[in-house]
Specification:
With 90 residues, the chain is α/β, with parallel strands linked by helices. It has helices spanning 13-23, 43-54, 74-80; strands at 4-9, 29-34, 58-61, 70-71, 86-89. It has one domain: DsrEFH-like (Hypothetical Protein Ychn, Chain: A, 3-Layer(aba) Sandwich).
Length: 90
């Protein structure tokens, strides 16, 4: 039976995105939430983000400065989190 994971991205952005990519190997549902800041503009994060999109991960943010992600208010994100089996915060 597959599980649902939420990966919360804050300070350790590259590590969080790398962890989300690793979870795809388990064939579980993984959603990524970029919280409270814009993702850094560097090669490693760009590569991870491109790979996440290639695997059709759902990527959400509460910061409208993050282009190409579905923007949700913080309270909506908070309502969604109890629906996950595991939440990984970075």
């Amino acid at each position: 039976m597959s599980k649902k994971f939420a990966v919360l991205v804050r300070e350790r952005q590259a590590e969080a995105l790398r962890m989300a990519l690793g979870l795809v190997l388990l064939d579980d549902a993984v959603d990524v939430y970029v919280l409270d800041r814009k993702l850094a503009d560097d090669a490693e994060i760009g590569l991870h983000l491109a790979t996440l999109r290639e695997f059709e991960f759902r990527i959400y943010t509460n910061d409208p400065a993050n282009d190409g992600m579905e923007c949700l208010p913080t309270d909506e994100i908070a309502r969604r989190l109890p629906g996950y089996d595991h939440t990984l915060a970075y």
